[in-house]
TrEMBL record:
This is Pectinesterase. Its EC number is 3.1.1.11. It catalyses: [(1->4)-alpha-D-galacturonosyl methyl ester](n) + n H2O = [(1->4)-alpha-D-galacturonosyl](n) + n methanol + n H(+). Keywords: Aspartyl esterase, Hydrolase, Signal. Pathway: Glycan metabolism; pectin degradation; 2-dehydro-3-deoxy-D-gluconate from pectin: step 1/5. It comes from Sorghum bicolor. The lineage of its organism: Eukaryota, Viridiplantae, Streptophyta, Embryophyta, Tracheophyta.
Amino acid sequence: MYILLLLPVVVLASSASSAATADGSFITWDDLSIPTAAAVQAGGVGGGGVKAAARGGSHDLDTIVVSQDGTGHSRTVQGAVDMVPAGNRRRVKILVRPGVYREKVTVPITKPFVSLIGMGSGRTVITWNARASDIDHRSGHQVGTFYSASVAVEADYFCASHITFENSAPAAPPGAVGQQAVALRLSGDKTMLYRCRILGTQDTLFDNIGRHFLYNCEIQGSIDFIFGNARSLYQVRKYSTP
């Protein structure tokens, strides 16, 4: 069925240094927590916007702020992910301020140890509306289920909390084909989601490969809305249909 427990996914500790997290032994509760005001200020974001030094040294930030009004380091979530250096070996938090972010996001395999943290799953939403039958204009072929995901995570040690992942494509009529519409695809190892909502209709959560732990989350869909070959533990507060 949909709920599998075959191997330990993560070991949560009450606190740890970035070095301890990056050695691959565990994910801490701090990795899932909203950064403190002091941490955000240290990253160069204040009431007047991003400091010039932060713009020039964004690749060294421990906290990257996304804000649609321009007072963060990036206006888009993908822009913040792009600021994380390839081969990253330390925990980087991306704080996404309230808003509806209409974009496709990919966390590539070269960028592990990223935490994507919203300001509440009802206030911070990442949404897109791709379906498997959509045409990729570069290749001329259908994107398929794999690439229909609004958010695709390919990196290890990814965390997310207090945020909504959504595919807003309309529900497919009976008998329709190519209507798979993934909200979130997990293809890395040792991922943890906490207090997240994953919303869609058909094929909402593509739990592709790896070991993942979803704790106190909500997953919504109507047809095959959790599927994949991962070995994951789900302790969710709600499964629902639209």
